[in-house]
Amino acid sequence: MFRTTCRKCQLIRIYLGCAFLAILLIGVQPEHAQVIAGMMPSPMTIGILIMVGGSFAFRQRLKTYRAEQAELGQR
């Protein structure tokens, strides 16, 4: 339908599609939504995964930054 190379636009469309589907599922068939909600991890698990993922991403970016700075002779 809409063709674009913008990565952010594609991610927003995927997010909105999933959100719309979840809302539709809750409204049309609540018993299926309860089954899916039962498969989700706890909020604490999700929070820990976000913190670990963020820490890992920060470490990788810091490592890349330091490597670039060392390559340029600045540090």
For this entry, give a set of tags.
83% helix; 2 domains; single chain; mainly alpha; 3 helices
Low-pLDDT windows of residues: none
Approximate strand percentage: under 5%
Overall form? elongated
The main β sheet shows up as: none
Head-to-tail CA distance between termini: 49 Å
Report what the structure shows.
The chain is an all-alpha fold and 75 residues long. The chain folds into two domains: 1-40; 41-75. Helix content is 83%, strand content 0%. It contains three helices and no strands. α1 crosses α2. It starts with 6 loop residues before the first helix and ends with a helix. The model has no long low-confidence stretch (mean pLDDT 84).
Topology:
Layout: H1 7-28, H2 30-39, H3 43-72
Short description:
The chain has 75 residues and is an all-alpha fold.
